[in-house]
Amino acid sequence: MHKRNLHKDGYDFDTLVFTQPTLAKFVVINPNGRKTIDFANPNSIKELNGALLKHYYGITHWNIPHGYLCPPIPGRADYIHAIADLLAENPRHNKATKIKGLDIGTGANLIYPIIGSQSYGWQFVATDIDKTAVKSAKIIQSSNGVLRNVVKIRHQANPKKIFDSVIKSTDLFDFCMCNPPFHVSKEAALLGSVKKNENLKRNQSKRHAMLKQKLAPTKPIGKNPLNFEGQNNELWCDGGEVGFIQRMITESINYQKQIKWFTTLVSKKESLKIIYKKLNEINVTELKTINMTQGSKSSRFIAWRF
Fold first, then answer.
1. With a cut of 70, which residues of the chain have pLDDT below it?
2. What long-range pairs does 86-94 form, CB within 8 A, spacing at least 24?
3. Distance between alpha carbon 154 and the CA centroid of its chain, in Å?
4. How far apart, in whole angstroms, are the C-alpha atoms of residue 10 and residue 253?
């Protein structure tokens, strides 16, 4: 993980349970004798996220509606820290400069604005097409004093648009960031969830032995029976991540004077070739691909400017 990532050394469950005692009932001992949680259980992940946000980022109230994405915080933090490195390449971006970011598709969890504002003092405008997600994000923002003056949430009423209608004529952003839906259909999203579920079950026998002794049965959050939560707009869109990013690139032309760096995560490495081609067509002045690693998982985001 990034050298400034507060979670690079793993989870200190003793400290986290002290911070948020409700996490205790989800903590188990793995075969190596170390404390952990069942990462196949979305209730466990939600409780862990609440503890992490409270302990490291000063967020005393954090909750999401049933069935909405509950993202892993360490990986989200890496994206924020990598953007900080990108901005640091420009000498005008110093500690005295007020950095303002645009989070596209913030979801019900508001994770990126939380980490970015509390780690670097950045200001954010966060957008989403889902009214329930917007309502949830606004509750988190208004319920935590550290967020009230630095984060604003806007509803994108047109699901086919990304920047249009949510960026005001007076807005100026140092960067935008995005974690686009990467499946092309609901069916593909379900298949992807099944695959993830099967991967987690490789160690099912060991996990089951732990949980049988420690955990009472719990129901997954929401209607998704696969333990991988997310609304349709969070998991898939027309054209998948390539289609979404292509639309983002096309719209970015009209906002090149209002956003200095356009960035987005790209989950599939094979998507890059098509995305690069699209960016070359609009003659960007600079294009970067920043690779990130969280344990055995590799991820990346692209950044371009005019």
1. 91-97, 182-239
2. 86/175, 86/261, 86/263, 86/288, 86/290, 86/303, 87/174, 87/175, 87/261, 93/174
3. 17
4. 41
Measure the CA–CA gap between 273 and 25, rounded to whole angstroms: 46
CATH number of 13-185+229-305: 3.40.50.150
Predicted TM-score (pTM) of this structure: 0.83
* 115 neighbors 71 (Cβ within 8 angstroms): no
Angle between helices 42-57 and 111-120 in degrees, nearest 10: 20
Q: Beta partners for 292?
A: 299
Structural domain spans, the chain: 13-185+229-305
DSSP-derived letter for residue 25 is G
At 71-119, the pLDDT tens digits run: 999 999 999 999 999 999 976 655 556 899 999 999 999 999 999 999 9
Asked if 38 and 28 touch (Cβ cutoff 8 Å), the reply is yes
Burial tier of 126 (Cβ tally within 10 Å: 0-12, 13-18, 19+): buried
Q: How far is CA 183 from the centre of its chain?
A: 16
Distances 102 to 117, 119, 124, 128, 262 between C-alpha atoms, Å: 12, 16, 6, 11, 9
Q: CA 26, CA 36: separation in Å to the nearest integer?
A: 8
